[in-house]
Amino acid sequence: MDPVKPTRTGVRTVSEPDHGENHASDGTTGEATDESGGTPVEAEDVDGALAALDGAGLAGYNYAYLDEHTKREVRRAVLKAIAIPGHQVPFASRPMPLARGWGTGGIQTTLSLLGPEDTLKVIDQGSDESVNAANIRRLAERTADVETTTDTTAADVIQTRHRIPEEVLDRDQVLVLQVPVTDPLRKVDPSDAANRRRHAHANYGKMWVHLYENVVEYGEIQVASRYPVTVAGRYLMDPSPIPRWDVPKLNDADNLFLFAAGREARIYAVPPHTDVEPLAFDDRPFQVERFDAPCEACGATDTYRTAVETDEGDRLVVCNDTSFCLKRREDAGLAKDHHLDRDGVDWGPGTPDADDTDQEPATNGGDRT
Amino acid sequence: MTVLSGTGLTRLYGDPCGDCESLTGDDAGRNRCPACGTIVACADVSLDIERGEVLGVVGESGSGKSSLAELLALERGEGHSRGSVRFDGYEGNLLESDYDTRTRLRNDDLALVHQHIRDGLTLSFSGGGNVAEKPLAAGERSFEAVRERVRSLFEQLEVPVDRMDDPAETYSGGMQRRVQLARALVTDPAVVVLDEPTTGLDVSVQARVLDTFRRVQRERGVAAVVVSHDLGVVRLLADRTLVMRHGRVVERGLTDRILEDPHHAYTQQLINSTL
């Protein structure tokens, strides 16, 4: 007789000698846990298995959702990525409870880093309140038992999609960026094999042609997001779809940036105080976005702004970083480095700086050439 | 002074048995080894190219001309390659050099114009972009300087300058050929290898492409290896000529001498069969 046999519904049932007991009330039987930490399910079909798990809560889940081996593997990839700034390091990329491409790489990296003492912030395109951000935050809250916050300055780990916060990050913070496309060269050649060879030999001529043609077409480099950068003078890196506004923040920062792509199973990093240089021509410098009007909510002129539509159907141009905008509404003069006891912290375009306060902040692009 | 020299250049396609080279060649009248079926594309070809001179390579289709051109231009082809390629200013046998040396050489000093346009150009890029790629890859970072260089090359090679920002795939065949020549010449190389530079062009366009190339070649003092099945092309461009058959050089000498006084039976046949 087959001891274990797939049933019609695809659920593997465990045919132990029936001892007449029903564990359906909690779905687990402490002593029945097998070596790998999995829990045998005693049920006849899928409905029965689901019913057995009803109300089980987090029983059977490891701390921070992922098992320890997975977390260790991710941390190893992170360490290797830090050791080779800008180089794409493969990692196993487990299935997560949401589709790949929705931030699974970021979640795996975040969960591998978190400990119970940490505070987590999750940003989705500048907003703390999008469904995806709220769900990721809740997953970490429930499985990793961490505090969450919307305040950038209070967070230890920040997972973000397509933005770097306006407030300056410091050396104790880690920013985890979700990455949809890891290789900047894919824009110019879809072959990953050829692109890996180009990275190996730092052969980036094709990307330069792309920029050349961009200037030919627009008179200046108009790459809206995913602006290619050179990391530590070696690897060409895709900084994820952050706006050009955020690209200068990567250069010589105090904090660690981790980039994780779940679908592509790659992790890469920009360690603190690494040179990150956006690709540009000597006579066509890198420029950040230009804005005509200040934020209509807080009046800021030194932040990245986007248009939002209100419930009444009005179109407002407001700060994209909602948590900092809320702070600015309380205190309009709040500096981006208000929480640090240092002056002249350079963080992206238009950061209040003791040396050039007379410069018009939002129009000064490419301030780090 | 010799810029580029090749010694004992050999390329075999297949699984060589060891006797391939003695069983093939002009005397044997074949280039496919009867023992193991290996194709001996070219065997034991030696040549020197002086600064500023043009060397022609003629022969019928399948005689090993393109394999020789690929070896000289350090293209990584399939098959077994032997022999040595030396280039003025570079150390050692370049067929055994690492990727970096080869890339540097091919960016700065040696250019190949491919027989097939698709191998030489990225057709989705603009014509100007294709030419700009080489100085950009070599580290030029001034947009205006690159653009000016591309523009002046387009003018010299008679490619319409107002088309330079259109995708190369929208160009006519003759324009694509000339863009390939511009791309080869943009970094002022010492040697250009042209593999069938006029394939697929009608006679009048052929004449114009060759004419402009000859003019630019003389102005810049570029040495060239011109591979062609067409004696007319070689007659027009080459100072010296090699005649190839079954993967071997059967005759070599000044182009005029070869055309007026061919020694080898095959060369005589080749010249007599010109339409």
From TrEMBL, chain B:
GO molecular function, one term: ATP binding
Pfam families tied to this protein: ABC_tran
Chain ranges of the ABC transporter domain: 23-271
Keywords: ATP-binding, Lyase, Nucleotide-binding
Biological processes, Gene Ontology terms: organic phosphonate catabolic process
Protein name as catalogued: Phosphonate C-P lyase system protein PhnK
Gene: phnK
